[in-house]
Amino acid sequence: MNLACIAIKNRIVTLVLTVVMLVAGLMVFSSMSRLEDPEFTIKDALIVTSYPGASAEEVEQEVTELLEKTVQQLGELDKVVSKSEQGLSTITVTIKEQYNKETLPQVWNKLRQKVSDVQPYLPPGASTPLVMDDYGDVYSIFMVVTGDGYEYHELKRYVDKLQQQLLQVKGVGKITTFGERLEAIYIEFNRDRLAQLGLSPDMITQQLSSKGLVVDGGRAKLGAAYVNVAPTGGFDSVADFESLLISDGAEKQFYLRDIASVKRGYSDPQSAIIRFDGKSGIGLGVSTVSGGNVVDMGEAVLNRLAELEDARPIGIEFGYVSLQSEAVTEAISGFVISLVEAVVIVIAVLLLFMGMRAGMLIGFVLILTIAGSFIFLEPMGVALERISLGALIIALGMLVDNAIVVVDGVLIRMQKGESARNAAPKVVSQSAWPLLAPTLIAILAFAAIGTSNDATGEYCRSLFQVVMVSLLLSWVTAVTVTPLLCVLFLKPPVQNDAHRDPYGGAFYSGYRAFLTLCIRHRYLSSASVTVIFALSLWGFSFVEQSFFPSSTRPQFMVDMWLPQGTHIDKTHENTKEIERYLKQQTHVTHVTSTIGEGGLRFLLTYQPQLSNSSYAQFLVSVDDYTALSELMPQVEQQLSQRYPDALIYTAPFELGTGTVGKIQARLSGEDIGQLRKSAQEVIAIFNEDSNTKAVRTDWRQKVKVVKAILSEEQANLNGISRAMVAQTIRESFEGVTTGVFRDQNLLLPIIVRADEQFQADISNLENIQIWSPIAQKMIPLRQVVESFQTEFEDGIIYRRNRARTITIFADPTEGTANELLARLRPKVEALTLPKGYTLEWGGEFEDASKAEEGLSKTIPVFILAMILLTIIMFNSLKQTLVIWLCVPLAVIGVTAGLLATNQPFGFMALLGFLSLIGMLIKNAIVLVEEINLEQGEGKPLLPAIIDSGVSRLRPVAMAALTTALGMIPLIFDAFFVSMAITIIGGLVFATILTMVVLPILYALIFKAQSN
């Protein structure tokens, strides 16, 4: 069945379908979902459990260990990492790579069930574990609402109303706030006053807790109906608290207002604070519904905000930390421009070398193929984003390969005197199936990334999907639309001489002479190529290695860590000073600060820092991302000098899957002291290298703890227990929650604590009065406490897969992480660790290893499939060997290109090399197939080899040239530059060598005679 004959015979149908595909493709393109980067599933969930009063080690042993043991029973579990700190357990559960966003909800349900089952076995005082499976949610809009001159409750009321309005906008999935302050009712007493009156704080808390309860008065029969009986006496206002009567247990009663102050206020200290350009505010994160269009949702939200502008009070302002709709629109516009530039370059090359009509014809088929691809990609869930549009640019040269072969074949036959009507079906009949096999091989070269289950594979999957669809469609258009267009638009040459040699020009004659010379001296030629190949392998050792490059996002991060245990108020104070410094820097436009924890996840690659009062992060926006290379080290150096007690470091946003700390050494073992000792040895090695910065551990410094040494004898005599001492101390400083106050839909905790003057001085510990049940009066705490001792203990304990693990982080000041790791790794691994202690490397090394491991599982399968397809096509092991011996030649051009441009060989360059294999095999197959055709016409082997090289020179060279030149726009993209250089260098050099070396190898292996 000749597809060209069918298309030509039914030309009206073919033309109509062509127009329909072109128009439909453009319509689908305009409506496709748009993203800045492709989505990948964050397979993490958090289990958060509070255990007030417990040390980090007690939390680890009594809460974390129990939950980890349960979580480990999940068959879907990949790893479990826990953080145990004073009063809090946070467990990060990571699921295996093969589970995606469709199957993860079932896994999270199983996780919740297992956590629920273990809850009764948690120690008294531990909260119900909270499973947070939305940890990976990305907020397309992250904004800060500020209000100079407004009280917090006024700002909060406006944000609540705004939230209700935005939730009604089409495309909005969820809205989350950040940096909210929780309200509470504070009952603050004077301990000396209570002691004088013979009252204890417990008497107050008991009265408050009973008053705040919701009680059931039951129902009574009233005629034929039942009516509820509801006793009064609860709290309806702050004034009701002040009028509460407190009994001393005998005859006296006191109003609460006479012995304590009552106020409604905000939680102190705050757990998280957010600021924008020096103003405190409330963060607002808006996420898109699953499968929604980020750009459409963002524009809809902005339009709604514009409609609500008149209702916005004067002084309340919006600061945008991240607005993905604008970033996506800008990124997509940039990529579309690059795509158009690449198409124009390819068409210009075609016009130059193929002539006006042939060039325009192939250019139209190229545009048709691209447009038609969108029709099939959209139902597959492929969005317009960095990878998918980049894949189209990568595929451009290959998309014209098939059309070039068909058009070139028709032109050659027309030069020999045939009409286009006769030539087109013959060319398609001769080349359709030989073109399909190399097209499939080119697709298989990209298949490894398309079938990889890891996060990197998921991130890059659209690369394979786009190449697969577009290449298959290019073959279809080449054997149907292209021959019809040849018949309609190609004109016969002016001098229609059937005896004129179409390969008689100087270009072909020069190539023929050079190829003949090389084959005549085939052994010398082979030796020369072997030497060049060996030199390229040696040169490759000088190519830098990396994983993913930094983003061109005009924003960078500044992380500040004060000593562990620093109060959030002190962190906040330093933050204000640093904000003022940052705002004074050239190119800086906005500064967003989060204190106490990282912000909302506004990018997939952004990993928010877990809660820590000594931590602050600054998101610094600039007017030009090229200024980051100079600005970041300057900021880091100056701030580190200003705040010597703080660890301050800068970092750009990363492309790819992202990681915190490019260099990570993980030490695991049982004894905390030994782990810290070994970690210090690693830190010393890291600090010895002048190219390291931000050297730190996740366990951080030990924290101060004041321990009350209880006198058992005196405590027993006064009827006082350890729990009573702890309760009394907590009441005096932090406060004790004793109930809730209901204010409409709000539940405000009622907190009983000593007055602010008492809280401000820790030396008041000795002056605390504690109630003695035996003496029935308040006595000084020092009567039952021998002494107060200040000690240091671990404030944070991390575990990985149930083993205590301390991680040492570092980042390179310049160069790549791989270079730094190559220097540090031998020294660290030379350390002697005690038996039972292990060292493993994380960070970029681990991410790259996982990505390469994911590819390594599938690459051999697809390489084998490509080889088998080649064997099936030619039914010859020798010809298959000749074709595949040309593949290593790509290394010559790759090495030369990367060294010349000083680009690292990263993950994208690796993908470029894999795709290069498919391109080279495709070109080699075209050449070998032509040799078979020449021999089939009765030519001797050597003339057949030479004539095949000459006849295939233009289509092979054109395919390589269009692919290489089409890559030029990607050279200016930070993400694709290494891939573009790999393909350009490898393809240009390898194609030149292939057109010479393949004929030489063919002559060698098949022993062609030189006569």
UniProtKB/TrEMBL annotation:
Source species, domain of life: Bacteria
Coiled-coil residues: none
InterPro entries reported in the protein's UniProt record: AcrB_DN_DC_subdom, Acrflvin-R
Keywords per UniProt: Membrane, Transmembrane, Transmembrane helix
GO cellular component, one term: plasma membrane
Spans traversing the lipid bilayer: 12-32, 331-353, 360-377, 389-411, 432-451, 463-490, 523-543, 858-874, 881-899, 905-925, 956-977, 983-1005
Membrane among keywords: yes
Tagged with keyword NAD: no
Protein name: Efflux RND transporter permease subunit
Organism expressing this protein natively: Pseudoalteromonas xiamenensis
